[in-house]
Amino acid sequence: MKIKIHAIAFNHTPGAINTSALTIRKNYSTPISVPEWTPQTDGQNARAAYSIQDTAGQTITIYAQLSCDVPGTTVRIKAIGGDELGQVAEQVVTINNNYIAFSLSGTNLASAGVNILYTGWQWSYKQGNGDWIYIDTTNFTVYTLLSRPSAPWSNSTNPNDTQLPWTDVLDVTNRWAQGATTPDEVQRLITEEVYDLGEPTPAVIAYDIINGATNYAYPNFRCTEFLQRINGQYGLGMLVNCTDCATIVSSFSNILGCQLLQSRMGFDFALRIIRAIGRHVWAVPFNGYFSYHEVAWKVPCDSNANLYDACLQIDTTLQNAPPSGYLPVNMPFGTCTTLADYKLYLTTSQQDGCPRCLPIPTTAQLRSIS
Question: Which fold has domain 3-145?
């Protein structure tokens, strides 16, 4: 007797993300079809994503299409492996070339944190008291997210929605934030990785110290071109500004379930020295002033809210000494009155410095993805 596995559906019930996979895309132009696994998509081309928070304490299910050369045969089926996604629990099935719902057991996505699981199941069957007989191995890729993605990413069940989470982005974010288990940890790691794109020589991206122009985040987030850039292609070139960095950090964090906004401070305030992304020196650009500055900011984007700035390192010495660089991660914007305050280190203490640098929550937004 021969049993075949023709397909596995992970996102079998769109929207039921406590027991089913998320609805995702590969990128802006390419949707991901269900069933995700077929013999033709085995391995890294069979992709599914799960929310750790939403599946916690639940039983994840899959649908598998099986056939048998003896239709109507009743057997016991199981599959071992699957790593933190779990294995396919043993159950009795009658095979008629139909889709059959299977429950997973031993699921422990929380222990993986944010991750990419390159895993698979080894399927077998048995009849009565006979031995287990190997059927096949199905390999697939699982992305684990802290929780359901937040805006600008969509949780629509429409596979044609271009704002659904992209696996091309998850291939980056889940590597950058691998193992993270909290939003703050994800946001810190993403911020550090974006800033570090400026560290090689030549830099992958670098601050536009001539015009300060937005390159990848106007009029929306040109994510396709940014992915090209960090994967060794030209994209839209090397230059970025603060709006680009804020948009990248917030969008790449929010796809994993974080809740950052892109928001500005301003206007026309005097700067202390900074080490801008991709510029390996301490300097004060633009004749010593920022017309505005944009960061990835926690709600409500005010003086009491913490922020993430992948655009620059601040100098924390506050005195005549060699600069001591610090990348602002989870740092309160503040009021220039305590040593924890972000703007204490960004701005000068003169009247055209700190007093002019104020949060502008009305600028908070989340740019759409293209």
Answer: Immunoglobulin-like (2.60.40)
